[in-house]
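Design a sequence for this backbone.
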């Protein structure tokens, strides 16, 4: 009886060990894409109708170009829908880097809801990629 208990306990411990090893191996290989290792996009109400939109990117390697191709600002209309009220296109891309950060400030209307869609962009010698990422809705 004691021998069966020892075998059973050994089997359980081995199973737990193997399961945990698989989880650690899987977690260490997670990344956003072949070009983006990490991406984050967020919006913050600054008061007096001002909205800050920020993005932070880490690439998988040094990229020829890295940043945002465009930033779209969306404003809630009286019927509840959202309309694009501003698009930023210049000064959003860095060259020959593996990390990029920007913050833009949009001057909106106090009490109105906004969100942003950021078109993240990375380019190297083998190609390029775009990721579309939206912020949560905030009230200016």
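Sequence:
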């Amino acid at each position: 009886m004691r021998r069966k208990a020892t075998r059973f306990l050994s089997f359980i411990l081995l199973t737990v060990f193997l399961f945990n090893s698989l989880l650690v191996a899987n977690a260490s290989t997670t990344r956003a894409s072949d070009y983006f290792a990490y991406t984050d996009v967020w919006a913050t109400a600054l008061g007096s109708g001002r909205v800050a939109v920020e993005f932070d990117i880490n690439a998988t390697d040094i990229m020829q170009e890295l940043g945002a191709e465009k930033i779209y600002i969306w404003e809630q209309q009286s019927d509840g829908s959202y309309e694009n009220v501003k698009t930023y296109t210049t000064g959003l891309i860095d060259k020959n880097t593996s990390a990029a950060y920007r913050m833009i400030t949009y001057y909106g209307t106090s009490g109105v809801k906004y969100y942003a869609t950021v078109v993240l962009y990375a380019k190297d010698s083998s190609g390029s990629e775009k990721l579309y990422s939206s912020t949560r809705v905030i009230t200016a």
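Residues 24 and 98 are 25 Å apart (CA to CA).
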